[in-house]
From TrEMBL:
Region (Disordered): 129-150
Signal peptide start-end: 1-19
Keyword Signal set for record: yes
Protein name: Uncharacterized protein
Highest taxon above the source species: Eukaryota
Entry keywords, A to Z: Signal
Naturally occurring in which organism (per UniProt): Cyclocybe aegerita (Black poplar mushroom)
């Protein structure tokens, strides 16, 4: 019986470790336009984090010396956000990335985007076909939208990994009740 209670936390932690946070947009095919509204989207249904800080970074230290906070506390459940030119007013160029980090410890990075480009003011946004993204698991969670965030829709279905976390928790509670 004691061994059972020692195994339960390990199973629960293993299930949590399977959950991921991934930055969907921007990416190598979906760019931002300088001094314009731009979208950030992520896999909120698979994330174990309820909040994070969003940083913008560049691989060239002559462009940006260190990551700069764009949003100090972002709620995960939103799945995407449109940021204004005042929030992220970086110059046009390549080598840009986004970092999602702990709100308490910025060196604890939860996710890093693919490198993306910021095109000059007046450039066209990516086409709808380029920006359509569908992320699904059991439960059919999905996100679609445009680069300007005007037509973004998100389903709130639980993904496979998030559902697994709740299943593990229910199993832990159920096993505890059986032992008692």
């Amino acid at each position: 019986m004691v061994r059972l209670f020692k195994a339960i936390p390990a199973l629960f932690l293993a299930t949590l470790a399977a959950a991921d946070l991934e930055i969907l947009r921007p990416n190598s095919n979906v760019w931002w336009v300088a001094q314009s509204l731009n979208e950030i989207a992520w896999t909120c249904n698979d994330s174990p984090y309820s909040q994070f800080t969003i940083f913008v970074n560049n691989t060239d230290p002559t462009v940006l010396v260190s990551p700069m906070a764009v949003i100090s506390v972002q709620e995960n459940f939103q799945c995407s956000i449109t940021i204004s030119q005042n929030q992220a007013n970086q110059p046009a160029g390549t080598g840009w990335t986004l970092l999602f980090a702990s709100i308490f410890n910025s060196s604890e990075i939860y996710a890093t985007s693919e490198e993306f480009e910021i095109k000059p003011l007046g450039s066209a946004y990516p086409t709808q076909a380029t920006t359509d993204t569908s992320a699904s698991a059991s439960g059919g969670a999905s996100t679609t939208g445009t680069a300007d965030g005007a037509n973004t829709t998100t389903s709130g279905a639980l993904g496979l990994k998030a559902g697994g976390v709740f299943s593990a928790l229910a199993g832990v509670i159920g096993l505890g009740a059986l032992v008692l």
